[in-house]
Amino acid sequence: MHGGASLAVPVLSFFVPGPTLVAVAWAITATLGILEIARFASPRVNRLFIRAFGLVMRPAEKSSMVAASTYVALSTAIAFTVLPHAVAVTAECFLALGDAAAGAVGERWGKTRAFGKSVEGTAAFLVAAGVAALVLSATPGRLPIPTVAAGGIVAALTEILPLPLDDNVSVPLISGVAMALTGAVLSSF
Predict the structure, then answer these.
(1) How many domains does the chain contain in total?
(2) Which of 3, 14, 86, 180 is positioned for an S-S bond with 100, CB 3.0–4.6 A?
(3) Residue 139: C-alpha distances to residues 12, 16, 52, 178 (Å)
(4) What is the mean pLDDT of residues 140-166?
(5) Where in the sequence is the domain holding 62, given as residue range(s)?
(6) Facing residues of 117 across strands?
(7) What is d(CA 25, CA 145) in angstroms, rounded to the nearest whole number?
């Protein structure tokens, strides 16, 4: 569910003009933000929210934590606003596929811990990011392999490190900046 929802805007970005896409991304973010405020302000609204979305929510999200979908929407809106299109698409795909793979593998087979997360999950994140890079290499406006490789490695490291920012925000934005910088350095040669 998380991966599919995270892929919606990157896929849509190939069919919707940039300014319209950014407006839609910010409208989704604003709507989810208002829902978060309403559900934390009203136990009744929170119960309705949980009834509607509880099956896809983590236990902490049901009581005191902002839902992952809100963070994903925020990172998507920011990425498509400030990063080049190919970088934003790639960074969001790293999040969608990598985070889902890390969670699935880490929960099932994760035994080696680092920073409170499983190394096996991080390895799965890196493999999923590589798969995303291979798929995206066939799309128009693709990024050079060294740029994508740098972004995938930075995304996996960002996911495992105990950063204060939710990984649904930090992974795509930090890896996106890394790819933008790598691309700028490579283009100067």
Answers:
(1) 1
(2) 3
(3) 13, 15, 36, 20
(4) 90
(5) 2-187
(6) 114
(7) 28
